[in-house]
NADP-dependent glyceraldehyde-3-phosphate dehydrogenase (Nyssa sinensis), 537 residues
Amino acid sequence: MVQIQPSPQRTGGDQFTIKWPSRKFSGLRGKGKSLIWSLAMAGSTGVFAEIIDGDVFKYYADGEWKKSSSGKSVAIINPTTRKTQYKVQACTQEEVNKVMEIAKSAQKLWAKTPLWKRAELLHKAAAILKEHKAPIAECLVKEIAKPAKDAVTEVVRSGDLVSYCAEEGVRILGEGKFLVSDSFPGNERTKYCLTSKIPLGVVLAIPPFNYPVNLAVSKIAPALIAGNSLVLKPPTQGAVAALHMVHCFHLAGFPKGLISCVTGKGSEIGDFLTMHPAVNCISFTGGDTGIAISKKAGMIPLQMELGGKDACIVLEDADLDLVAANIVKGGFSYSGQRCTAVKVVLVMESIADTLVGKVKAKVAKLTVGPPENDCDITPVVSESSANFIEGLVMDAKQKGATFCQEYKREGNLIWPLLLDNVRPDMRIAWEEPFGPVLPVIRISSVEEGIHHCNASNFGLQGCVFTADINKAMLISDAMETGTVQINSAPARGPDHFPFQGLKDSGIGSQGITNSITMMTKIKSTVINLPTPSYTMG
Ligand code: G3P
């Protein structure tokens, strides 16, 4: 039986001296220190000035930015410097209660707000978000070490998602069904059934560290267009980017209390939020915490995406240059910290040497360093995450995997590593590293590749490379994953595509249309006639 280890923790870390350009900031005093401070807070000036108090970012409730009565804060460690970059409020359970109470009453009014008006506000928020892409992206660089250009892309993609969601909401929520009773045996045409989609109430959104803006708006926008109110609990790493994003919604002029954002320790408010009786729906993306949430949440709709071990099956007739490019992009972008990253390559033995050579050549060209320099490989999110990745690498080394590059790590920065000749007895064959290390398993038949893919506890996405579309379709049907990509690496986007995981990868389907539908329920009104309606005339 396959044993999957818990996902690496997404926070924590001690100090180390970095050897890249930002090294010059460590140990500065006086003027130098204030330079660091102004750089660190650069995203919190201008329109964002009101979201911070001293050096602690406020939380958002009842349409206002507030300080927690706890007087405590949670530190956000910059993965690159491994020093505290930001601080956020440690909200209390009483504050969560207040937020829920307000969210409940705000939702009642919001549900009565015309659909076109909800869409209009979302379009406004999208525009404001894009206008402020630079300061928000800067937070992503500092909090989660996302490469500078990717950080900007995340914000722009989020704006586009919000706009598309507004459009889609107007289309799909403006339509319902009309049914007549005489299509069911034994009935006359005496009943007309009208169905429409109505909101669920309060939606709790919990996004992960790797897309704290995009995977927040992918929950916020569908919830709002469908007439729900929204409580956001951002990940600790990424919370400040999320607070900036929430401020864009604030500036757009949404009603007070409709959107709230509470920050704090999962240990203090995590269960309290997910088990709160006011919550009518939870949309969660992250690690296996989601499994625990699903057991505690109660009788409410859940939407969860909990990671993957996406397999890349490569057949003999594949275009190996295309495969190599996709393996490197799919396996190493954002240092492998994507649920949809290629996490295991299953290649036919006869072409394995050629493919590994091509991938190796491309890996050699990846730049490694700080996110500010827009390097391809940047530090992973935390020291505990780096330690977890290292554990997988060492296990593979001990069991005889071939290292295509030398294993190298400095602090949270791990150099990209391709591991060839990985066998099923190695942990890395099954576990999700969430880092820039990629195993290659050589297979002697397609069936062996499919078997490996399906033996995983995960079932998010997979991909197959072949010139034969007929074979590709057979393999796609055989792979037990929510999505199979043919001749391309796994990916969630475009964001209106359905996105779902099987097995431990999640519950429900995402993507804009599915998320809107999931955040509604069906309401029927039946018109009962005293006589069948077709008897006149
Ligand atoms: O949770 C999904 C995320 O980790 C991957 O999204 O857009 O990089 O495929 P994407």
